[in-house]
Amino acid sequence: MQATADMTKKECSWSGWKGQAIDLLYWRNVKQSGAVFSSVLLLLFSLTQFSVVSVGAYLALAALSATISFRIYKSVLQAVQKTDEGHPFKAYLEMEISLSPDQISKYADKILLYSNTCMKELRRLFLVQDLVDSLKFAVLMWLLTYVGALFNGLTLLILAVVSMFTLPVVYEKHQAQIDQYVGLIRTQVNSVVGKIQAKIPGAKRKEE
């Protein structure tokens, strides 16, 4: 019973985190999403101008300046008002932040599952288990060579963050039109792939 209760609690916690992430990306709370979006962009733009060490050091100094100033301010205020409210960050200092063995095991199992799935898929593509899929992968890698020549990793990361915070909202507002165009494109792509499969020996998928 206890194990079932713990499992239910973990599932609810995961669902809560997932719901919060969706709310952020869909701008359910404009102030919260705006704060996260601007903070991440500011961090990434800082990394384009300074090294990771410099950015990390400046962030740590900024955080320490804020917490030390607040601690001194509260101490002076308590001395003047002759109150004993205790440490201003007491609630956060007593907060449990360590991972339990069960949580570590769960995350390790997930990482292992994703790693094995990725290795199997790469083996399937590189050893040409399915010719069409391997050709698609080759075309994707060829396109990425041009993307890599135009953008560096940080630029791509910035574009990814901007897309994460804009595309879901755009899709939500224009879902019908987007689904229609995506369906047309998918039909055309499937038609072209079908023609290629018919002309290349061994490219036709095996019927399951």
Description:
With 208 residues, the protein is an all-alpha fold. The protein has 8 helices and no strands. The protein has helices spanning 2-25, 30-49, 52-81, 90-93, 101-126, 131-150, 153-173, 175-199. Helix 2 (30-49) runs antiparallel to helix 7. The model has no long low-confidence stretch (mean pLDDT 84).
Q: N- to C-terminal separation? A: 42 Å
- C-alpha Rg (nearest Å): 26 Å
Q: Overall 3D geometry?
A: elongated
Ranges where pLDDT stays below 50 over 5 or more residues in a row are: none
Largest sheet: none
Q: Helix and strand succession?
A: HHHHHHHH
Rounded mean pLDDT score: 84
Beta strand %: under 5%
Q: Which structural class do the helices and strands define? A: mainly alpha
* Estimated helix fraction: over 70%
Total number of strands? 0
Note the total helix count.
8
Keywords:
208 residues; mainly alpha; 8 helices
Give me a quick take on this structure.
With 208 residues, the chain is an all-alpha fold. The chain has 8 helices and no strands. The protein is elongated and about 85 Å long.
Fold blueprint:
Layout: H1 2-25, H2 30-49, H3 52-81, H4 90-93, H5 101-126, H6 131-150, H7 153-173, H8 175-199
